Amino acid sequence: MTGIMDVRGVTLWREGFESKAAELNWAPTRGNWLIGPPANTKGPARAHSGARCAAVGLRTNYLNNVSSSLVYTQPLQIPDKSRNPMLRFWHWFAIDFGNDCSQGPDYGQVKVLLPDRTEEVISPT
Questions:
Q1: What integer pLDDT is reported at residue 101 of this predicted model?
Q2: CB 31 within 8 A of CB 79
Q3: Fewer CB under 10 Å: which end of the chain, C or N?
Q4: CA distance linking residue 27 with residue 14, whole number of Å
Q5: What are the backbone angles phi and psi of residue 88, rounded to the nearest 5°?
Q6: Contacts of 92 (CB under 8 A, 6+ apart)
Q7: What would the DSSP string read from start to end of 15-41?
Q8: Average pLDDT value for the chain
Q9: Cβ-count burial of 116 within 10 angstroms (0-12 exposed, 13-18 middle, 19+ buried)?
Q10: Angstrom distance (rounded) from CA 15 to CA 25
């Protein structure tokens, strides 16, 4: 479940992965993201809410040396900053901390696409 709330806790937008529309609204730009019930024994036994989630490694471990992105493909109007919009989502991860063939550690980021088509990282580093 992903959502945007304002400072008062009012939900302004919410999207889960239960409907077939989720497969149209969310798309991998590269990599091996999938939407469905989790079936990898090294990950969570179930989705946070409902039966389906989005994941790299939904059924098997994720591949080495793959840069992977999942994007929300529908236009989404973010409220003015005076409403203090907050993105809220649940995640679970187990990542490679590096040292395989001199590779650095894996990591994850949350980015937004700005009106000028540039990306801004909004997750902590």
A1: 61
A2: no
A3: C
A4: 17
A5: -130, 130
A6: 43, 44
A7: E-SSSTHHHHHEEEEES-EEEE----T
A8: 82
A9: exposed
A10: 9
pTM (2 d.p.): 0.75
Which three-class secondary structure string do you get for 34-86?
EEECCCCCCCCCCCCCCCCEEEECCCCCCCCCCCCEEEECCCCCCCCHHHCCE
Confirm whether 117 is domain-assigned. no
CA atoms within 13 A on the CB side of 7: 6
64, pLDDT greater than 80:
no
Is the four-CA dihedral 95, 99, 100, 103 of positive or negative sign?
Answer: positive
Domain containing 28 equals 2-95
β-pairing verdict for 53-56 and 33-36:
antiparallel
d(CA 20, CA 59): 19
pLDDT above 70 covers what percent of the chain?
Answer: 93
Let me know if residue 68 belongs to a domain.
Answer: yes
Instruction: Return d(Cα 36, Cα 23) in angstroms, integer.
Output: 9
Res. 124: pLDDT tops 80: no
Number of domains in the chain: 1
